[in-house]
Amino acid sequence: MKTLSILFLLALMVPDLSAQQQESEKEDSKKIKIAALPYINYSRTIDFSYGLMGTAFYKVNAEDSISPSSSTMLIGIYSTSKSYVGMLVQQFFLAEDTWRTKISVGTGTGNLQFYEEFYTGGQFVDYSNNMRFLVGRVSRRLVSNLFVGVSGGISNSRTEFDLEPEQVIDIPLNFLGGFVQSDSRNNVNYPSNGHKIEADYKNFGAWLGNDQSFHRLDLTYDHYSNFGNEDRVFLARFHSRISFGDVPFVGQHTVGGENIRGYSEGRYRDNELYSIQGEYRHKFKSRFGFVAFGGFAMVTPDISELFDQLVLPGVGAGIRYRILQKEKINLGLDVAVGRNDWSLSFLISDAFSR
What we know:
two-stranded antiparallel ribbon, 17-stranded antiparallel sheet, about 5% helix, mainly beta, Porin
């Protein structure tokens, strides 16, 4: 019933969004384009959530016709489980797309759960995680589609577990890192061809003030192709996120979200996550469209044990509404099912964009 209620609320919002689009024909003449809307969602872990999401798109240099639009995003979300997040994400594309920067700052508390095997059997354990963070990255184009960059961040994580006796982990999570990226996509918001390949390394060493020293390596390959029509796009994606060393609880990775939609319970988590998925995107002549996606993920404490783990499939579909034509920004609602789990996702812009 809650899912149906959310779908009904979204349906009520569509006329308002359509009314806003009567002015979008003047979009080309606007220096700042804004996509803003109420946020409505439901998760089996954090229950019903609501808030506001808004993004402004603009050119830093009006004469720069090569750089994608820079953007400023504000997010404020609260849930009936008393989880919340407030975040600002600033992204710049500069000097004919020679320089790219991204800065995120925010705070939030997630009242979540994880699955633990006890001697009496497996069960979910509730926990609350509070995060305060400031992270950033900057990259420079070297040749053609090749970018090289550095990243860094400071944050603090406090995790309280609903166990007897009470357990609390309060640790800093500071890092420095570097990444290499090959990006040939024809549009960062809604690519219809090209690829994005990235290797991203982060060092959470004790020399940065961390209580536990570990490393993280993200490897991503996205490939976009169309069928002779930019309104029909297929995306193939491989992603791995590997933490190694003295990995803390909050340094582990959970199946869900962009790493295979269809999981919201937080049951499957470990030091290493691997996923493969595909997505078909179809836009109609109107502003509406749909997506269909599927794939699988696996989590493991070490890659040597990967093939001893469960294969976690996820399949689903979603609807899209093109709120900004020139920027190719969509509003979306995705519903997916996984192994004994499901998820509902509400988003501005498509998965894996920017």
